[in-house]
Every structure is written in C-alpha cells, then in structure tokens.
Amino acid sequence: MLTNQYMNKSGSVELADAETTSLLDVRAIGKTYRSRGNLGAGADSYVLRDFSVRFEQSGRQVIALVGESGSGKTTAGRIALGLLTPTDGDVLYLGRPIREMPRRERKQFRRDVQAVAQDPYSAFNPFYRVGHIFHLAQRKLRMYATKAEERDAIEEALGFVGLEERDILARYPHQLSGGERQRLMIARALFVRPRLIVADEPVSMVDANLRLQILEIIERVRSELGISLLYISHDLSTVYKIASDIIVLHNGEVVESGPAHSVITNPSHPYTQLLIDSTPSPDPTVRW
Prior knowledge:
The protein is an alpha/beta fold.
C-alpha cells in the first residue's frame, strides 16, 4: 500500500523560503490569442482573465474548476502544469516563477505537479505496450536508483488503483477498457510521487459505474496519500462528491468561488445557478 512517506520521500530542490511559501500559486493569470483577419492581424481575444488559485504545501486540498466547454478550464489547467505560458500573471512553484526556473528546478516541478488527462487513450503510444509509460517517466525524471526499485514502485502504484502488474503491463492500449486506461494514467502519476495532480475531466469518458470507482480512487489519493488536486469538470455532481472548494469559470472569467457546500446550496451568480439546475438527478425530489 502506498503511503504518505512513500509518496514524498524523493529529495526536493531547496528554493528560497520554501517552508513558508505555497506549493503552487497561480496568480492573476490571463491568456490572450491574436486572431487573424482577411487583411492581416486581427483583434486580441482572451480565453482566460485574472484567474488565481493556490495550493499549500500541507496537501489534501481538492479545488474544483467548473464551467461549460469553452469557459477556459483546460487552459487554466495547462498553464498550471507549465504547458502553456500565460499572457498575464505568473505561476509560482515554491515561490519561484516557473518561467524563470533553471533546468534542475523545473525537473522537480515536473515531478511534483502531474496531470491526468480527459482522454487516457491519447496519452498512449499505440506501438508500445502500456508498461512503456512508466519506463518513459523513469527515464525522464530518474526517480529510482535501480530496476528493482522501479519495478516495486510500479507494482505499488498499480495496486493502489486496483490493477495487477501481470495482467496489465504486457498489453497494448487498445486491449484495455476505458476504465483500465484511466486508472493506469492515475497509477502513472502516482509512480512519480507527486504533491499535486491536475485532473482534467478524469471521469467524463467512462460509464457511471466506473465513474464512481475512479472518484473513490481520487478521494483516496487525497485522504491516504496527502496529494492535492485541481479537479477540472463540467459535472457538479462529481465535483460535490470530492471537492472542498469550487471555482466557477464563465467565458474565461471567475464568476463565483468558495466552499463547495456554500456554492452548491446557495449560489450567488446566475450562471452557477444555471449549472446547478442543469445537473440531472436520479431522484428529482431529493436536493443535493
């Protein structure tokens, strides 16, 4: 069984005031794209404006980012992961802007902040057996000193998500179900021993029964391993199950934020109310 100690035993890069700063501090970021018209450059259009979120080093935070398609959720997640550069604002890892980090510090950031994508199939190279995703992570990040340590870590990560090493690693991506692929991607993130996972719609492509299983794994990631999550979703019913706080995005702007219970039961913005009213319930007589 994976433990907090196991997940965080890797040596960390010492940054200035690391003990008193946040793990990840996304500060007033914006993202603007320049459109092109028929006669050349067009007007700037923003997809995200003045977005902020902070994760402390203590862990166990689950902050949900919700909104309809096109609201800027995925853009915010990709900027938090360092995969996109914001037009405005900064993303700070242990107090240091990630855009200014030298290679060694950026490598530590890559270990500490991991992603679980919406479409697990797109993360696999169909020409390789699925065990390749673990070996590639080890080659890039050098988490383990020996092959035996690497093998033990893979086995523990797979066991945490309910997969057996002997049944999974020798297969090809097309031989796995959607639920197996998504659990495998969570295991790959855990293999790296992160402190924060950015999960973008992690249950949107599986059926209802598997959705519950994956949500339970995510809750155990938080409670048992002490890992924080930025959970991106359009589905308030799943958000309400696991998140402590909610940020609502609409047209690239934050329209409401706060504790999950308060946002769901007493929304202050009409868009939030619309999201809540559009969430189906198996029993319409029972409120959240």
